[in-house]
């Protein structure tokens, strides 16, 4: 049997003889376009059949495991993931409304599945029906991307987040951040001089997230250090047709383009803090516009889980956020999971309070809220500020997180805890009385963060971790490159935070490196260790050249799908196999992108091929995580 006919046979078998056979025909034609010389151009043809790939015949929103519709050939899904949140509710009443954070996620599983078959014609037919699980064994960072200056090309046309609003000649008194970014790798044209003086008499410069090369630089750092990707925060305040919202969309495009150029992943995370109940309807409309108008879920790098695009919505159930309409919140979740047309459906992750399960402290109470939490596909509690050192973390983990994990596993809900390196918002809260001290929660040279990474990686039921945050210098949780030494900080140096604040000399990329090492430990490529695996020695940085957006989105850029044997029951390997990812496309598939030269073997690929893990069981390894142990789940919906 010709393979193209066999593919059609698979489609017909899934759809059934009485169903619309256009899908089977589209699958056959798609294969013919790739194997016949002079066939239809890949990109154009994939777009031409996108209708069939979005079809959900019985309108149940089901993913690829459903046997009552076209299954893997036509189903899509989405998964929400919360990216940004604020400090401990117990300490400050919850996340600050003026600096919320959110992101969205989406994508098309079918294009990825079919393109994998084209990439390897010998792949077994079972690959067509396997799910794309892009959250498995990954640390995903929250990405604010909210910084700007006048003349940066954004519609807002003012300083954003570096200084207080409407400041024209900013000085230190106007500063809203505690860390000063390391600026030596940004293009000079992407920097703006401020009124803040440096020790040598020059003036401090700041970047803008509206500049594509700035965002690209950040994603190149991720690729260099093996960081998988981000949840980009999308705030729902001012979500109408305003300069602020237009700027957010502009930066989301930068994120998408940078992810595609570097092989990183991204998804949208909505933040509903600072809004009332009317935000629920506005959020739906905004998502429809992102899917239809921006094509955001069509990106090859958009995160999917269980065959659906991922969407994260932060702000569900917080006492400090005035979205209290339980019927409206439940309807929003139901809408994304099953009510709306198939191409808008998502794998829905809720950004919830730290004490969501026992409904105390920062969480709203009542049966309706419990039902809302239980109906989520994924749960991401905001943990920033919940502990201040190793002892308080261990106590919090034992009392709450471990029990949260068990609760979610029993119900088939993905649990995504928050990891954070430290906390400081001395300048952001400069007008508070009393003013918070600098370095409120010390990083302790990385030990504070690594203790969390070790604990999370040791729990085989934790398969995804949210890192807060990649670029959050407002609250001092950033892991990207910042000024390492106090002596190099702007004046007054006591008003800023350097990486040597705890008496340890560190390189500017220390927390990028540490996050990459934590990723390796989570995925099983590094043995579990409770001590820092790195030495405090600066390393030479690679030369990274900004790269333009790819001119087309090749189907081969879609992540390779895990086969059913991708996660064997054998133990997780303690060392990384040199052939761990033989079929994975390099993040440098874009021919114009320069490959990072540092740590090439540890860079996390965009997906995990079936051969990613050895099947032999190393005697000293801990058990391999098994996503299959998390049951496939369809939450009950109120009638």
Series of secondary-structure elements, N-terminal to C-terminal:
HHHHHEHEEEHEHEHEEHEHEHEEHEH
Task: Name the helicity range.
Answer: 25-40%
Q: Give the overall pLDDT as a whole number.
A: 73
- Supply the number of helical segments: 14
Described by the principal axes of the CA atoms, the overall outline is globular
Short note summarizing the structure:
With 639 residues, the protein is α/β, with parallel strands linked by helices.
What would you say this structure looks like, in words?
This protein has about 650 residues and is an alpha/beta fold. The chain contains 14 helices and 13 strands. It has helices spanning about 5-15, 20-35, 40-50, 50-55, 90, 110-120, 210-225, 245-260, 280-290, 325-340, 365-375, 390-410, 445-460, 510-525, and strands spanning about 105, 140-145, 190-195, 205, 230-235, 265-270, 305, 310-315, 345-350, 380, 415, 420, 465. Strands 1, 2, 5, 6, 7, 8, 9, 10, 11, 12 and 13 form an eleven-stranded mixed β-sheet that branches. Strands 3-4 form a two-stranded antiparallel ribbon. Helix 1 runs antiparallel to helix 2 (about 20-35) and helix 10 (about 325-340) runs parallel beside helix 11 (about 365-375). The protein is globular. Mean pLDDT is about 75; it is low at about 1-130 and about 540-639.
């Amino acid at each position: 049997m010709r393979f193209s006919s066999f593919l059609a046979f698979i489609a017909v078998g899934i759809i059934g003889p009485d169903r619309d056979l256009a899908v089977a025909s589209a699958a056959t034609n798609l294969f013919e376009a790739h194997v016949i010389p002079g066939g239809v151009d890949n990109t154009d043809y994939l777009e031409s059949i996108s209708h069939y790939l979005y079809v959900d015949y019985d309108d149940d929103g089901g993913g690829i495991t459903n046997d009552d519709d076209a299954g893997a050939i036509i189903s899509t899904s989405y998964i929400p993931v919360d990216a940004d949140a604020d400090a401990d509710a117990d300490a400050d009443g919850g996340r600050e409304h003026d600096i919320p954070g959110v992101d969205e996620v989406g994508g098309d599983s079918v294009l990825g599945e079919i393109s994998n078959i084209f990439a390897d014609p010998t792949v077994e037919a079972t690959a067509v029906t396997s799910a794309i699980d892009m959250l498995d064994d990954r640390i995903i960072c929250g990405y604010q991307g909210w910084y700007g200056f006048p003349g940066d090309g954004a519609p807002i046309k003012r300083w954003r987040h570096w200084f207080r609003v409407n400041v024209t000649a900013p000085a230190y008194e106007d500063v809203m951040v505690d860390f000063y970014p390391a600026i030596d790798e940004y293009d000079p044209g992407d920097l703006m001089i401020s009124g803040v003086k440096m020790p040598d008499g020059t003036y401090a410069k700041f970047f803008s997230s509206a500049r594509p090369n700035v965002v690209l630089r950040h994603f190149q750092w991720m690729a260099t250090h093996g960081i998988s990707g981000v949840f980009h925060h999308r705030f729902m305040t001012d979500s109408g047709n305003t300069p602020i919202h237009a700027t957010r969309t502009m930066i989301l495009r930068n994120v998408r383009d940078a992810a595609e150029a570097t092989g990183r992943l991204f998804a949208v995370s909505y933040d509903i803090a600072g809004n009332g109940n009317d935000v629920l309807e506005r959020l739906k409309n905004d998502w429809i516009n992102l899917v239809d108008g921006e094509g955001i879920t069509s990106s090859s790098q958009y995160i999917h889980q269980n065959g659906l695009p991922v969407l994260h919505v932060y702000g569900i159930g917080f006492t400090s956020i005035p979205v209290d309409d339980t019927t409206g919140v439940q309807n929003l979740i139901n809408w994304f999971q099953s009510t709306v047309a198939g191409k808008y459906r998502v794998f829905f992750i809720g950004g919830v309070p730290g004490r969501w399960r026992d409904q105390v402290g920062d969480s709203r109470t009542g049966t309706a809220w419990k039902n809302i939490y239980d109906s989520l596909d994924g749960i991401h509690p905001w943990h920033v500020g919940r502990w201040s050192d190793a002892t308080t973390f261990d106590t919090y983990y034992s009392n709450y997180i471990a029990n949260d994990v068990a609760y979610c596993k029993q119900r088939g809900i993905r649990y995504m805890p928050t990891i954070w390196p430290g906390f400081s918002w001395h300048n952001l809260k400069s007008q508070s009385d009393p003013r918070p001290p600098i370095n409120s929660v010390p990083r302790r040279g990385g030990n504070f963060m690594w203790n969390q990474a070790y604990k999370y990686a040791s729990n085989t039921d934790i398969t995804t971790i949210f890192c807060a945050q990649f670029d959050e210098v407002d609250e001092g949780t950033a892991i990207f490159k910042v000024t390492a030494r106090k002596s190099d900080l702007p004046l007054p140096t006591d008003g800023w935070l350097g990486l040597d604040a705890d008496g340890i000399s560190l390189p500017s990329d220390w927390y990028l490196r540490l996050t990459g090492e934590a990723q390796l430990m989570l995925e099983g490529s590094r043995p579990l260790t409770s001590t820092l695996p790195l030495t405090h020695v600066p390393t030479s940085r690679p030369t990274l050249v900004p790269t333009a957006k790819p001119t087309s989105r090749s189907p081969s850029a879609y992540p390779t799908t895990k086969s059913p044997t991708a996660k064997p029951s054998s133990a997780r390997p303690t060392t990384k196999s040199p052939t761990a990812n033989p079929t994975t496309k390099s993040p440098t598939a874009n021919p114009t992108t320069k490959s990072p030269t540092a740590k090439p073997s540890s860079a996390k690929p965009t997906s995990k091929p079936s051969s990613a893990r050895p099947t032999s069981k190393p005697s000293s390894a801990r058990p391999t995580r098994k996503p299959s142990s998390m049951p496939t789940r369809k939450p009950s919906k109120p009638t």
